[in-house]
Structure prediction request, 437 residues.
Amino acid sequence: MTAERPLLFTNARLIDPASGKEERGGVLVQDGLIQDVGPYVAVATDAEVVDCGGQVLAPGLIDMRAFIGEPGAAHRETLKSAGEAAAAGGVTTIMSMPDTNPVLDDPAIIDFVMRRARDTSIVNVRPAAALTKGLKGEEMAEIGLLREAGAVAFTDGDRSVTNAQVMRRALTYARDFDALIVHHVEDPDLVGTGVMNEGEFAARLGLPGIPREAETVMLERDIRLVRLTGGRYHAAMISCADSAEIMRDAKSRGLPVTCGVSINNLALNENDIGDYRTFLKLSPPLRHEDDRQAMIEALVDGTIDVIVSDHNPQDVETKRLPFSEAENGAVGLETLLSAALRLVHSNGVPIAKLLRAMSTRPAEILGLPGGRLQRGAPADLIVFDPDAPYVLDKRQLRSLSKNTPFDEARLQGQVTATMVAGRIVFDRLNVSREANV
Prediction:
């Protein structure tokens, strides 16, 4: 078997979010790694050359929160379809959630998912294991064995561990393995029958509201348990100004805490629900515009570490219902970058800072080698035109489920090529070598 020829991307706007460096130049890829990068790249004469036409070339995105139906609910999403959607959206690594059937609370199931992903997915899939057995919040899962099997983090997905003693034990035990606890901060008792953000808009729609305290009370408790145990903790998604202040204070005290935000809570607010649009029924719910602005400020000042898609496929039967009865969730892998670029175009967020929250910081938090545009780094790369306008048609999404909150939205910024481990897996640049898909 002959070695693959080197591939040289030229005429690119290079953005390395790890260093903050931005320059014109090229990237040389061979053997699945970045061999050289910069304004002047020395290359052998047999290299294939791809002209990026001045578009951005950056590390591939790493999404720390994606629900995938396989195993158990492959009609909603498979590892294959999720990988195709991710590649089209510039996501080269997915952290999959454990709420499958069976639940990812056994090393053998973790192994199955990893093998299945290697065989069928064109992007990297890193499974998160269940924090508690059966996601019931009652008994801690076997964190040590699951970590050995390949789990990169521990979470109960969209369920909160309400028992403080269980959470304390999990944080203490995880500390000894340097394992990461990822928690959905939402008190189910305070959520009650609520279906959207509590406030004037919910009252006008006649829908029961979810108070911000459902999030902040749980987050405050977790921060105190982190202070007690010293365990590594990541709040999966925060959504309101008070939560940002809690995280800001915890970080100022040197606690080992990080947090994420859903792209939905950065790009949308409660008014977008409009006439009971169930594709915008989410957890955490879309908040007031003041909270959305607070999330953007927290992202810019570094309080928020990562942006996630919160990809949660739902089929027609669970979404085409009255708003109060519909399931939470929206697909988001394919639109993550385009929706995030709204912050660049409309809010003046620096593009390098945006990419850092979607590549470098997730890699650092999960202990992965990607997220940087440097020699020796994995050739998980994306090329995209940040100014390319388009109107999203949900029928063209590669996800099996079509429940996108951005249907018919005008978006700006489109991925033109995605590379994983040196292989082109999505291509609008017409790279000459055959894509290995």
Remarks:
- Residues 433-437 have pLDDT under 50 and may be disordered.
- Residues 60-366 form a domain with the TIM Barrel fold (CATH 3.20.20.140).
- Residues 213-229 form the longest helix (17 residues).
- The chain has one domain: 60-366.
